[in-house]
Design a protein that fits this description.
Elements: H1 14-49, H2 56-63, H3 68-78, H4 83-93, H5 112-120, H6 124-130, H7 140-167, H8 177-193, H9 198-213, H10 218-240, H11 247-270, H12 272-277, H13 279-300, H14 308-328, H15 331-349
Helix pairs in contact: 1-7, 2-7, 4-11, 6-7, 8-13, 8-14, 8-15, 9-10, 9-13, 10-13, 14-15
């Protein structure tokens, strides 16, 4: 009998198949682990430096489990952002997950529990590893193990980060620039994938307008303006041709983010046929990532003033982050370089 987690055929022992899938999944994800663990480490450091207890790291990573959104969630919950705004932000930031259903090999996964976990753990990294392989070479167990390894790298990195952060004798200013650097790197990558200039320009204008007219609700206003601008452009082209929040609120925010993220990953598998033929959905998926990441990067800098002590470190760190990523296209190097530049200038030059 074939189990829910394997597709082994006759003559292949369960033990041999299990070990083979484990080794294959470990090989598949080792390079991803070199990127996920350090980023998880940075997340843990930022979390504990923001005032959270260490045990919030695994809670964030097991409930949200959405990389860049976990970084963003720290600021959202500290600002006690309305849950409706958190839901909208999650929808827009993770909108790209809708398209993973088009090519992720979920059909290879056997068993309801395994399929539910596979949809929950469908991150960028897991998709990149599994979707690029011949589906016929993937057993159900191997797909699940790929996702388990990816989540382990991230969760363990986050726990290591909070432990290191808790041991630091002082509060380090500027560590939160890692979030800005992350979104800048993602924006550069999104622009490289589709060199469309109007989308980032519309995003920048939306962010600047929102920053001026609705600073307290900048993120929701900016993303709303950006989506409206993209829809208008699409139609035009078609026509032409630190105080900690209450724990109950925090848990509710995590539940909202987890729920919206899971729905974005799971629902498309049920409606995959309409998605394949929807020009609007494909248009939004192609043009939204670069703009969303730029808006998020500007959102993280909303506290920067025009005073030299505030503006110079941010501008220099942004320049270093972009230059490093254009030079080497290595996310971790770019984030570390930009964050280190900001911390040195903020703490020891202008501090």
């Amino acid at each position: 009998m074939t189990s829910a987690f394997t597709d082994q055929g006759p003559g292949v022992s369960s033990g041999d198949s299990r070990r083979s899938d484990l080794r294959a999944a470990a090989r598949d994800t080792v390079s991803v682990g070199f990127g996920l663990f350090p980023l998880g480490l940075a997340f843990g450091l930022l979390l504990v430096q923001s005032g959270f207890h260490w045990w919030w790291a695994p809670i964030f990573s097991l409930t949200i489990y959405a990389g860049s959104l976990e970084f963003l969630a720290i600021g959202l919950v500290l600002a006690v952002t309305p849950l409706a705004s958190i839901a909208m932000t999650t929808l827009l930031v993770n909108f790209r997950h809708v398209f993973y259903a088009l090519s992720f090999p979920l059909h290879r996964v056997r068993g309801k529990a395994a399929r539910l976990y596979s949809m929950y753990a469908l991150t960028d990294e897991a998709y990149a590893v599994a979707a690029t392989k011949d589906p016929r070479s993937l057993s159900s167990r191997r797909v699940i193990l790929i996702q388990v390894f990816c989540q382990l790298y991230w969760v363990l990195g986050g726990v290591a980060g909070v432990l290191v952060g808790s041991a630091l004798p002082m509060q380090l200013d500027g560590l939160d620039f890692a979030l800005t650097a992350l979104f800048v790197v993602l924006a550069v990558d999104a622009f490289r994938a589709r060199r469309d200039v109007p989308a980032p320009v519309l995003a920048l204008l939306s962010a600047l307008v929102a920053l001026v007219v609705a600073r307290d609700q900048m993120l929701v206003v900016a993303m709303s303006l950006f989506v409206v601008a993209l829809l208008a452009r699409f139609l035009w082209q078609r026509r032409r041709g630190p105080s900690m929040p209450d724990v109950s609120y925090l848990l509710a925010a995590l539940a909202v983010i987890m729920g919206v993220t899971f729905l974005l990953r799971a629902v498309p598998f049920a409606v995959i046929a309409p998605l394949r033929s929807s020009a609007l959905v494909h248009y939004l998926g192609a043009h939204m990532p670069v703009g969303i990441m730029l808006i998020l990067a500007i959102y993280t800098l909303r506290g920067v003033s025009f005073a030299p002590a505030s503006l110079v470190p941010a501008a220099a760190a942004l320049a270093v982050t972009i230059a490093l990523h254009l030079w080497r296209s290595h996310a971790l190097l770019s984030i570390v370089g930009g964050t280190a530049t900001y911390m040195v200038l903020a703490n020891w030059v202008f501090g």
